[in-house]
Structure formats: C-alpha cells, structure tokens
Amino acid sequence: MLTISPIPAFSDNYIWHLEHDGEHWVVDPGDASPVMAALGQNPLSGILITHHHLDHTGGIDALVERYHCPVYGPASVEGVTEPLEDGDEFHLLGATVRVIAVPGHTLDHLALLLTEPGSRDSPHLFCGDTLFAGGCGRLFEGTPTQMYHSLRRLSDLPPETQVYCAHEYTSANLRFAKAAEPGNAVLQNRLSQVDNLRAEGKPTLPSTIGEELATNPFLRCHIPAVARRAASHGAEDNSDEVEVFASLRKWKDNF
Ligand SMILES: [Zn+2]
After folding, report:
1. Residue 133 maps to which CATH number?
2. In this structure, which of 104, 119, 134, 157 has its CB flanked by the most CB atoms within 10 Å?
3. Which range marks the domain in which residue 11 is found?
4. What distance in angstroms lies between residue 117's CA and the mean position of ligand 1's atoms?
5. Based on the structure, what is the number of domains in the chain?
6. What distance in angstroms lies between residue 243's CA and the mean position of ligand 1's atoms?
7. Residues 52, 105, 109, 124: which is the catalytic one?
8. Is residue 105 annotated as a catalytic residue, yes or no?
9. Active site residue 12
10. Is the pLDDT of residue 236 over 90?
C-alpha cells in the first residue's frame, strides 16, 4: 500500500513523502534536512520535482549526495537526471505515474498523477504550485490563458482524485474565495472545517478535485455569480472564462 505524508518545510511548504514496501520517495524537497529527519535510517529511492523554484528544489544536491538517487522532473531543473515531458508515463512505488504539463505559475511546471492499479484508492495528484486548495499559484512566467488551460486539465481529472499541493495556503485562499463568491454555502462550510484543522495544527491537505470544483473560484469562472464579481474587479467581458480568471488572479494578488 502507498502511504503519503507531509514533511513541513520553511514556513508553509509541504514536501510530500511517499512510501511503498519500504521504498521512499519525496516530492519537491526544498530543504534536505527535514527530509533526512523524516527518513531516519531509511534510504531515499528517488525525488520528484514539479518546477524550478528554489523552495521546491533547494534540497536536491544534498539529498543526491547522501542517497545517490535519481531525480525526475522538468529538464530545466538543475540536478534532474530523468527529464519528464507532458504525456510521459512510468512506474514507481507500485503505481503508474502520468506527467501533465501545467504551464502558468512557471513555464516548466509539471503535475504528476499517481494511480495504483488494482487498488481502490483514488488517484493522487501532486500539483506543486499550480492548483492550491481553494486557490491557484501566481502567474510568474505564463499567461492567464496558459494557466487557465492548465487548471482545466487538472479539474477534468476524476472528482475523487486526491490533491497534494505544495503549500498550506488553504485558509487565506478560502477567505478570498468567500469574497469572490459570497453566496456559496459549501465554501462557507469548508472554511469552518479548515479553520478547525488549522486550530489543531493539522494540514488541510489533501483536498479532492470534487471539493475544488465546488469551492475554488479559479475553477468556477463559468459560474455567473463568480463572473459577476470578477466584472466588478476588472473583467470587461465576463462571458470569457479566461478574462474572468485573469481578473480574479489580479484581484487575489492584491487581496
Ligand atoms: Zn513555485
């Protein structure tokens, strides 16, 4: 069985730790020391990388030096030994991994979808800084059109897909979501659940694609109530989902 647990790093990053039959992998190790502490005596078998930002890659060198393991990720990332591209498929940890290119936050951003054949477990999506619980990443390199298309590819995954983002941003994201769609009752409920989890010091992740479709304004640009709010924050044509998305993203940047 595949087990997935968060290794907290920096102020709000999660390095996801995957274990299956005594084999250990991590996703986006921005820092090596918390990974080594979590592994204890266990060796690291490999590293998965979603994009080039330092808080996702800063631990690669020290981990490779210590464990001599392969690094799978975008070819643009220094230290990657197994470059990945959109549509690639490979096997690890008893699962099939599918690579989905999701440019927008950065141009090299990849999402990784792990599916365990024969398991009743839902697919697991590692989406870095593209899709967040209740939000999405900032547009550092890509255009709104690219990011919107990337988010659509992720939101088309089965609703039970477990979503493992790389940051604990859920509470702040849902506060913005509430401003973008004040009448959404599911969103109000989610915000109280998230506040309870945070008060107990627990992670709010993973989320699911179904939850995101119901509460994440960046996946709800086609909903008239969201489009109307976007129009009051700059969207000139609120029948254009990309334009709604772009004005929500700009509004959130200054929220
Ligand atoms: Zn990033």
Report:
1. 3.60.15.10
2. 134
3. 3-253
4. 30
5. 1
6. 23
7. 105
8. yes
9. no
10. no
For residue 174, the model assigns a pLDDT of: 98
User: Is residue 109 among the annotated active site residues?
Assistant: no
- Give 178-224 pLDDT, tens digit per residue: 999 999 999 999 999 999 999 999 999 999 999 999 999 999 999 99
* Mean pLDDT along residues 154-182: 98
**Average model confidence (pLDDT) across the chain:** 97
The pair of structure tokens assigned to 6 is 């968060």
Distance from the alpha carbon of residue 51 to the mean position of ligand 1, in angstroms:
7
| pLDDT tens-digit readout, 5-48 | 999 999 999 999 999 999 999 999 999 999 999 999 999 999 99
pLDDT at 234 over 90: no
Cα 166 to averaged position of ligand 1 atoms, centre (Å): 9
Query: Annotated catalytic residue: which of 20, 24, 51, 109?
Result: 51
Q: Which of 17, 52, 56, 124 is catalytic?
A: 56
Establish whether 124 is a catalytic residue. Answer: no
Our answer to whether residue 91 is catalytic in this structure is no
> What's the whole-number mean pLDDT along residues 131-154?
98
- Residue 200 alpha carbon to ligand 1 centre in Å: 27
What is the percent of the chain with per-residue pLDDT over 70, rounded to a whole number?
Answer: 100
Distance 109 CA to ligand 1 centre (A): 9
